[in-house]
Design a protein that fits this description.
The structure is a homodimer of 385-residue chains. By secondary structure, the first copy, chain A, is of the alpha/beta class. The first copy, chain A, folds into two domains: 4-119 and 212-234, Thiolase/Chalcone synthase (Peroxisomal Thiolase, Chain A, domain 1); 123-209 and 236-384, Thiolase/Chalcone synthase (Peroxisomal Thiolase, Chain A, domain 1). Helices cover 38% and strands 18% of the residues of chain A. The first copy, chain A, has helices spanning 22-37, 54-58, 63-70, 87-100, 120-127, 133-137, 143-158, 162-176, 190-194, 223-226, 258-271, 288-297, 306-311, 328-332, 336-352; strands at 4-11, 46-50, 78-82, 107-113, 198-200, 203-204, 214-222, 234-243, 280-282, 365-372, 377-384. In chain A, the strands form two sheets. A nine-stranded mixed beta sheet of chain A has the order 3-2-4-7-1-8-11-10-9, with helices on both faces. In chain A, strands 5-6 form a two-stranded antiparallel ribbon. In chain A, a hairpin with a 2-residue loop joins strand 5 (198-200) and strand 6 (203-204). The longest helix of chain A has 17 residues, at 336-352. The first copy, chain A, is globular, with a radius of gyration of 19 Å. The two termini of chain A are 19 Å apart. The interface between A and B is large, with 66 and 65 residues.
Chain lengths: 385, 385
């Protein structure tokens, strides 16, 4: 396989884009990524786009064809990839393979979701499609409810507290307040999180990521071509994906995501690295408990010690392993299909040293962790400056 | 890139499966493909699944995660790919790249759609997502209407007649009557087609492919491993994809699909072959006019001569280039996301010499042509015995 690098990255602001459509968002992010790479559309050989539920959210499928057209990229092939909330990382992974295989040289990868044009109830029903609709959601479970079950079990087994969960939200809002692309650019106090409205005990509204519009884009090239485009290509040194049962009730454990553990192990092996080699990570904090579980699944902290580590500040910007410098899904926002690509954008900026206001010192190796639904799909990428 | 071969193929019956769900269909097709390959699930390294509109049709997204679970394949990665009616071929193409790149060895590829549980009107609205919803379908265009525009223009420019269109349906029903997996296993007369109910002038109901449930599966392996599984692996010697504008009104021509022409040229170049080297083809006859256009776009007949060629029987089982030996979308049925994979299954059976009742003599090279929507995506694969 050929070595693959990121030569361009860009994203829209994340938030409520009531005056822009799905197409506008992707074109905006795509052009930013191309501009960043200093490349014009006629150099692009293929594309991948991650989006979860455009069919239900805006009535439009065939997103690859649509975007080839609206990006002015006809006749190059663009392919849509879907894996619920992990759709963006799956698109990145297909782009990685297309370049690694030698099938294509310059590949653009995008992620997008336009979610705020429907009611919150309608969007929640649609997002239920990320879980086992027939055996979970149609029977009354909700996604906050599913993650609340994980939280309660984690609390029972390891003594994780509501304060520990809340500390992830407080930290992510602190980071988001330093990211001009974030949906929520304001800090939160521990008390605000703990006293916010209960959604699914023990998760409060401020433990949950929001509904968001947004898009992000990345341009990939073989490493031996990458340096002709940019002085600092970011190499993707590992791409791994794993699966688990789609319904929570079939899992062997509720306190970890087996798919994430396996994807992480596979990725570390591919990169010939261990968790202690990672300088920063973007992880899938759809709920605060998800971040606590993620930092354990990724091997940054032993099982059961994610909560105390978060409360003690070990995952802050100046902590031993900074997590979600972008603000994460919680504060940067979670336009579902865009999230995985946004994670790659943030890591790229950090490894280039241009993450203004939230830059990590000596960042050379970054990791992204993106989860579909409650963990039936997990994708881990490792990046090197 | 490594050479890639098909070592197993299988499909469900196509038709109205009121007593089976989406999950049952995929598991059925997947197990048939694995059984055909003589392989157990623990040998599979990864999977791809093509489905267009599961979110809208059955409320379920995250199809990769779902199927890894229901196929008993956890924790291997399975990824959903979508490109409207070309979703199946896009899944095959991603599987091809995953093996070609060296990322994975044994890869299962599936296609599925469960369509008959909703009303015809609801399904038609959902299928509109294959076109430009905002600028075509939401404004009143229908898919039969869009293809009728192509038909009328083809008739005006080249003198194509309604009989020529109908001849494709008559031929495909003849073939379908010889395929035990086909939705319609009965022959039609020219008169039956010509006097059937008008849908969008000049297309009648018997010029249109039906709404169908079904699934199909393929198992891929590197050619240097393939012979340890089967005496006759079918090599995929070309995989090409191209795009065009999503809306018909932006096209340079209505009488050909530019994306299909480009994908075909790319595929012939990759295989170092020309149209005259192809022994048989499965093409995307969502409407009869689509088959006439396809056999021209693929270079089997000069522009404008597809209609007369069809009427003269040149595309029949014993003609100079047999087209849609399976019965095509018209008679075999069109479970949208499954169609591209079904085409690969039919070509595999023909190249192995086991297409009972409809076997082509001396079939060594086959081609499949799969189109998304009205032509914004086209995918061409070439296969060698």
């Amino acid at each position: 396989m050929r070595r693959v690098g990121i030569i361009g990255a860009g994203m829209t602001n994340f938030g409520e884009h009531w005056e822009e459509g799905f197409r506008d968002l992707v074109v905006d992010a795509g052009l930013k990524a191309l501009t960043d790479a200093g490349i014009s559309g006629d150099r692009i050989d293929a594309g991948y786009i991650g989006t979860m539920a455009s069919g239900s959210l805006i009535g439009q499928e065939h997103i690859g064809g649509l975007l080839a057209d609206y990006m002015g990229l006809n006749p190059i092939p663009i392919t849509r990839v879907e894996g619920a909330c992990a759709s963006g990382s799956l698109a990145l992974r297909q782009g990685f393979m297309a370049v690694a295989s030698g099938m294509h040289d310059i590949v653009v990868v995008g992620g997008v979701e336009k979610m705020t044009d429907l009611s919150v109830n309608a969007v929640s029903d649609i997002l239920g499609g990320a879980g086992d609709q027939e055996w979970e959601l149609f029977l009354g479970a909700t996604f906050p409810g599913i993650y609340a079950l994980m939280a309660r079990r984690h609390m029972q087994e390891f003594g994780t507290t509501e304060e520990m969960l809340a500390s992830a939200a407080v930290k992510n809002h602190y980071n988001g307040a330093r990211n001009k692309y974030a949906q929520f650019q304001r800090e939160l106090t521990m008390e605000q999180v703990l006293t916010s409205k209960m959604i699914a005990d023990p998760l409060k509204i401020l433990d949950c990521s929001p509904i968001t519009d947004g898009a992000a884009g990345i341009v990939l090239a073989p490493m031996d071509m990458a340096e002709s485009f940019t002085k600092k290509p970011i190499e993707i040194i590992a791409s791994a994906q794993a699966s688990d049962t789609i319904a929570l009730h079939s899992r062997q454990t509720l306190t970890g995501l087996k798919a994430a553990e396996i994807a992480a192990k596979t990725a570390y092996k591919m990169a010939n690295l261990s968790p202690k080699d990672i300088n920063l990570a973007e992880v899938h904090d759809c709920f605060t408990i998800a971040e606590i579980i993620a930092i354990e699944d990724l091997g940054f902290f032993p099982k059961g010690e994610g909560g105390p580590a978060s409360l003690e500040g070990k995952t802050k910007l100046d902590g031993e392993i900074p997590i979600n410098t972008s603000g994460g899904l919680k504060a940067c926002g979670h336009p579902v299909g865009a999230t995985g690509v946004k994670q790659a954008v943030e890591i790229t900026w950090q490894l280039r040293g241009i993450a203004e206001g939230r830059q990590i010192k000596d960042a050379n190796i970054g990791l992204s962790h993106n989860v579909g639904g409650s963990g039936a799909t997990a994708v881990v990428h490792i990046y090197k400056a």
